[in-house]
Design a protein that fits this description.
This protein is α/β, with parallel strands linked by helices. Helices cover 43% and strands 19% of the residues.
Length: 109
């Protein structure tokens, strides 16, 4: 089953949300962002968003990678990235996005 790893990742995220192991907010917010050249990764991201929408008291934001803001990343309770695979690597746009995260600023204090 090809999507077994994805489902395990999602289960971990939902367990963290249900157990309250998230950043203190009114409601947990799952941010889904993706890069999709052919549209297939977008379809998968939308399917994940439909699953998140079924969880009570959890909000969901879904946007292409070039439309997501660092504020949305920092304020997310969970972040899901979607990427096609190029030569066994993630898309360069996703890697560039990950490398731009302000982790030192976000986790201070």
């Amino acid at each position: 089953m090809k999507n077994k790893g994805i489902s395990h990742c999602l289960i971990i995220i939902f367990v963290q949300i249900i157990s309250g192991n998230v950043i203190a907010q009114d409601f947990p917010n799952v941010v889904i962002t993706y890069y999709s050249e052919s549209g297939k990764t977008q379809v998968m991201a939308e399917a994940v968003a439909r699953g998140v929408a079924k969880v009570e008291y959890v909000s969901c934001t879904i946007k292409p990678i070039d439309e997501i803001s660092m504020e949305e990343v920092i304020n997310a309770s969970a972040l899901i990235l979607g990427s096609p695979v190029y030569n066994a690597n993630i898309a360069p746009q996703i890697l560039e996005f990950i490398n731009s995260w302000p982790l030192r600023t976000a986790f201070k204090g």
